[in-house]
Amino acid sequence: MIEDKFYYSDLFEVYGDILTDKQIEIMTMFLNYDLGVSEIAENLKVSRQSVFDTIRKSKEKLVFFESKVKYVKVANDVNSKLSELIDNFDDYDRSELHKRLISIRMDR
After folding, report:
1. Is 1 a residue whose pLDDT tops 60?
2. What pLDDT is attached to residue 2?
3. How many helices (H) and strands (E) does the chain have?
4. What is the Cα–Cα distance from 43 to 67, expressed in whole angstroms?
5. 38 and 48 in contact (C-beta within 8 Å)?
6. Distance between CA atoms of 104 and 108, rounded to whole angstroms?
7. Do residues 23 and 58 touch, judged by C-beta distance below 8 A?
8. Please, how many CA atoms are within 13 Å of residue 20, restricted to the half-sphere of its CB?
9. Angle of helix 94-107 versus helix 71-87 axis, rounded to 10
10. Separation between Cα atoms, residue 54 and residue 60, nearest integer Å
């Protein structure tokens, strides 16, 4: 799914350094260059199963870190709330705007 790729791209951008060099290489090809398993396997001269396993393990590692740190979730939540404020900026008076901004800061 495209949404999954965006999610894993976000995780990879934030936590990619925790992966091994080989995992980084494969995930870069998979997420940033949008190559498929077969194309990556051919480029690296390894089996498709090896690439598939590396992608699976890398995703698991990234999701595990996100489950502990929650940086991507918090960043996405803050961005969503800020977007809502920007979209409805003219609807708020100064006091309401201040309350909403404070609540965003407190929600982290």
Report:
1. no
2. 56
3. 6, 0
4. 32
5. yes
6. 7
7. yes
8. 7
9. 170
10. 10
On whether the CB atoms of residues 40 and 26 are closer than 8 A, the answer is yes
* Tens-digit pLDDT profile for residues 78-102: 989 899 888 888 888 888 888 888 8
Tokens of 77: 């939540």
What is the distance between the alpha carbons of residues 58 and 55, in angstroms, rounded to a whole number?
5
Write down how long the chain is: 108
Tokens describing residue 36:
């498929």
Instruction: Convert the pLDDT of each residue in 34-77 to its tens digit.
Output: 999 999 999 999 999 999 999 999 999 999 999 999 999 999 88
**Angle ∠(39,44,28) on CA atoms, nearest 5:** 70
The b-or-e profile of 43-52 (16+ CB within 10 A means b, else e) is eeeeeeeebe
- Give pTM, 2 decimals: 0.79
